[in-house]
Design a protein that fits this description.
This protein is mainly beta. A six-stranded antiparallel beta sheet has the order 40-3-4-29-1-41, with no helix packed on it. A six-stranded antiparallel beta sheet has the order 6-28-24-25-26-23, with no helix packed on it. Helix 1 (31-42) runs antiparallel to helix 2. The radius of gyration is 47 Å and the shape is elongated.
Length: 852
């Protein structure tokens, strides 16, 4: 008889392969042990001449014993929670300990509905929405969970007092102008004018902010120097009348500026008044005006030519030179065309002959005969007369102006100052917030979203109180108070009136879609009827009891009540309970007529309405839920202003093993501070928790499996409130990740590709692929407050295949400026250590580094 083939070599069948966890070994003999034992016993039996058959008998019996031992050890391991491996056994053990494994949660969030102009009404629950697919990410279904009153007037609500009057101080060096694209350039002549002051500007920089639609002008050392400083502006004096003038299109000169410098020396001409012919020759030249048909006034300025257009009331800028620059204004109504003559009178000595005078010795002296007379030189022309006012309203006399001066006017660019600036008043939770308009219909309990003007930060809040103004109010303002439903999308953001708008028509949404199913019928006598939901997984949402299933069961159209068990149910109680197996298949169970009623007899009268959708697929960023699956008569657009978050998968086997006995520590009651953390860990979606007491307040830090704060703290607060002393204040806060920076000098085995080794190192430190061991610095491994030692990191690195030698050159919280290697990185109880791809640096032998 031939021997059967050996199923596998005897040597590799080690005993430890059949001892799960090394905890139990009911039958320790493996195949090789059994074979050797039989051979040892056979040596005591005389040989019978049938060696081949005997060996085969030994093999077969050893193999049977080996298989029995392996399965017996496997079955023995499944008996205990700590050593069980199959999901079915773990679920059974958990339920024996009165622990129901975490069913997972559906992602929840909020959607902002934009209504068409003038529309209002009610949007019923279960409005079908969908996310936009991006790359390999598929579209996900979402539904509204509540019916909400909506109104087009609430699409976007303005905040009252968002803008405050701008102020300007005398020594300010920055002016903020409205708009952009004005063509302003540094060094060009500009004037600043307004009700309380005019100045010539010395501009050193011009910057445009297109997002804010503003232009900033930076001045050199202040605004002007030739006149008194501008007074400080207070809120009672807004800057609405102030502007910057630029781009002068006209250059004006005074009459006589182009006269001969020999006849009319520019430095000596300061005509002060009307010309009067001197009675005797003057010792110094005299100058003056004669104006036809009128009398010259000291405040009259005569331009070099007549103007065809009116400039009265416009500003003029003297750009400076030897004198300081200044700004003035042509007096309204002073412009007039006149004929003017500019005279110069001076003494002229002329010779009118000679005079002979006899002298001693018969010598005659000849002397000239002179006469000093008044001479006149004049310029005449038709010109424009104007008068010029200073900022104080007084006239600037002509005598102050140099004949060669020039003045700029005809401004092509007139840019108003930003007269109102965003209010810095902080908007606090619980304080009153004033909204523009009489927003009839707003009521306590409604949801709105606070948003920055650019939409970069959003927070969903609930209205606590609403106070409407009188119907006949001229400037109606609705006053509300609010409490937070979510945290701001930017951690630590503080709301300010000047950067705030309110979005109404906010409706809660949940991941998944609603399914209706006919479960079946009943004969009226069969106990414990069981019906299985054909679609799954069944969606769950946070609630006071933990994960609340989105399911409604009706018999003959009458809703029955879900209970955890039938222990308190009577024979007439319309109760049912749910049972979920290891594959997340959900069944509906009814009572037996003693504990819970049996559905009455009929066919296909038991119906279930439930929602299908669970896990991380529903976690989408803000702005991704934008599709209305079926057109709605009121809704024009929909978008989620904040991320849809909180979706978590059901408990993993290891999680069940860890959590099944946790509630035994608390017996569903929080007495100590640590009890709060233990109870929080039993809440769906919470993977990490720590608690501490500060100033008589229990601070509870909770994190999801991704290391983030939970999306909806309200459900967790309700869950804990039913199990704790509510007179002790409780604060639920988000965890704080701390980024670890690691510099690494690496030498690899030549047989391995370096890039593959580097990828393996990244996976060992940061990997989160499904089915693989999570990285050392990932939320699956790190607990809140858990420190990390240098030796632990070395152990992870040296276990990576292909690593021949490695040296950590930087191990700290900060980026490698000055290299630092700490033995231990410690964190507080609300922090956890995180590492991302940008924080791992491979250092070449030269000592430089390059980020990965």
């Amino acid at each position: 008889m031939s021997r059967p083939p050996r199923p596998y070599p005897a040597d590799p069948t080690k005993r430890e392969l059949f001892s799960p966890g090394g905890q139990l070994t009911y039958l320790p003999l493996a195949y090789a042990d059994l074979l050797e034992l039989q051979r040892a016993l056979a040596e005591q039996v005389p040989p019978g001449g049938e060696g081949d058959f005997t060996a085969t008998s030994y093999d077969l019996s050893a193999l049977v014993g080996h298989v029995l031992a392996a399965y017996q050890n496997f079955y023995a391991g499944e008996v205990f929670l700590r050593t069980a491996r199959t999901p079915r056994s773990l679920v059974k053990h958990a339920r024996r300990l009165s622990y129901e494994p975490d069913p997972g949660l559906s992602a929840t969030g909020f959607v902002h509905l934009t209504l068409g102009p003038g529309l209002s009404g009610t949007v019923q629950k279960d409005l079908r929405l969908a996310s936009t697919p991006v790359g390999e990410t598929k579209a996900q279904d979402f539904e509204t969970t509540e019916s909400r009153v909506v109104d087009a007037a609430w699409n976007e609500i303005q905040v009252s007092g968002a803008n405050a009057p701008a102020s300007l101080q005398a020594n300010d060096t920055v002016l903020t102008l409205r708009g952009t694209g004005h063509g302003l350039r540094r060094g060009e002549p500009m004037a600043f004018v307004g009700p309380k002051g005019w100045r010539a500007l010395d501009v050193v920089a011009v910057e445009e902010d297109r997002d804010a639609d503003q232009t900033t002008v930076t001045l050199a050392g202040g605004i002007g120097t030739s006149e008194p400083a501008l007074p400080a502006f207070d809120p009672a004096h807004p800057l609405s009348g102030y502007q910057v003038l630029a781009g002068p299109a006209r250059e004006l000169r005074l009459f006589g500026w182009d006269a001969s410098p020999v006849t009319f020396p520019p430095d000596s001409i300061l005509p002060a008044g009307a010309y009067t012919k001197p009675q005797s020759p003057p010792s110094e030249p005299q100058y003056g005006y004669v104006v036809a048909g009128t009398t010259h006034q000291p405040a009259d300025w005569y331009l070099s030519r007549p103007l065809e257009e009116s400039v009265a009331g416009d500003f003029l800028l003297f750009p400076g030179g030897n004198d300081a620059p200044y700004v003035a204004r042509f007096e309204p109504g002073s412009q007039k065309d006149v004929t003017v003559t500019f005279f110069k009178a001076y003494a002229d000595t002329q010779v009118n002959g000679v005079k002979t005078t006899p002298g001693a010795g018969g010598v005659q002296t000849v002397t000239p005969v002179t006469e000093t007379v008044v001479r006149e030189v004049w310029l005449s022309g038709s010109v424009t007369r104007l008068r010029v006012q200073g900022a104080d309203g007084t006239h600037r006399p002509r005598s102050e102006q140099r004949i060669q001066g020039r003045w700029l006017t005809g401004w092509r660019t007139r840019v108003p100052l930003v007269d109102r600036v965003p209010s810095e008043v902080e908007v606090l939770e619980g304080a009153e917030l004033s909204l523009v308009g009489r927003l009839a219909g707003l009521a306590p309990g409604m949801l709105v979203a606070l948003s920055t003007l650019d939409g970069s930060v959003v927070q969903v809040v609930e209205l606590v109180s609403v106070n409407l103004p009188a119907e006949d109010a001229s400037n109606p303002v609705t006053t509300v108070t609010w409490q937070a439903r979510t945290s701001p999308t930017v951690r630590g953001h503080r709301w300010r009136q000047g950067d705030l708008k309110v979005l109404g028509n906010i409706v809660p949404i949940v991941h998944g879609k609603t399914v209706e199913q006919v479960l079946g019928g009943s004969d009226g006598i069969t106990p414990f009827l069981r019906f299985t939901l054909k679609d799954g997984p069944l969606g769950h949402r946070p609630g006071p009891g933990g994960g609340e299933p989105d399911l409604e069961v009706r018999v003959h159209g009458v809703a029955w009540t879900r209970v955890d068990d039938f222990g308190a149910s009577g024979p007439e109680d319309r109760h049912y309970r749910l049972e979920r197996d290891q594959d997340q298949v959900t069944s509906v169970l009814f009572g037996d007529g003693v504990r819970g009623a049996i559905p009455p007899a009929d066919k296909k009268h038991i119906h279930a309405t439930y929602r299908v959708g669970l896990g991380r697929d529903g976690n989408v960023p803000a702005g991704r839920v934008t599709r209305v699956v079926k057109a709605h008569p009121l809704v024009a657009r929909a978008v989620n202003p904040v991320p849809v978050a909180g979706g978590t998968p059901p408990s993993s086997p290891e999680s069940i093993r860890e959590q099944a006995t946790r509630h035994i520590r608390t017996f569903d009651r929080a007495v100590s501070v640590q009890d709060h953390a233990d109870l929080a860990m039993l809440y769906p979606g919470v993977a990490r928790a720590s608690a501490r007491q500060r100033d008589a307040v229990v601070e509870l830090v909770v994190a999801t499996a991704d290391g983030e704060g939970i999306a909806d703290k309200t459900g967790l607060a309700s869950f804990l409130a039913a199990r704790r002393d509510t007179t002790v204040p409780l604060r639920i806060i988000d965890p704080m990740p701390l980024d670890v920076h690691l510099g690494l000098y690496l030498e690899t085995d030549p047989a391995f590709l370096r890039r593959n080794v580097e990828e393996a190192i990244r996976a060992a430190l940061m990997g989160r692929e499904a089915g693989a061991t999570p990285g050392f610095f990932t939320p699956e491994v790190r607990w809140l407050g858990q420190a990390a030692s240098l030796s632990e990191v070395y152990a992870r690195l040296q276990a990576v295949p292909g690593v021949q030698f490695c040296q950590i050159t930087h191990f700290a919280f900060g980026a490698p400026g000055l290299l630092a290697v700490h033995d231990v990185l410690r964190v507080n109880s609300h922090q956890w250590l995180r590492m991302t791809a940008n924080h791992l640096y491979f250092t070449p032998p030269s000592g430089g580094s390059h980020g990965v």
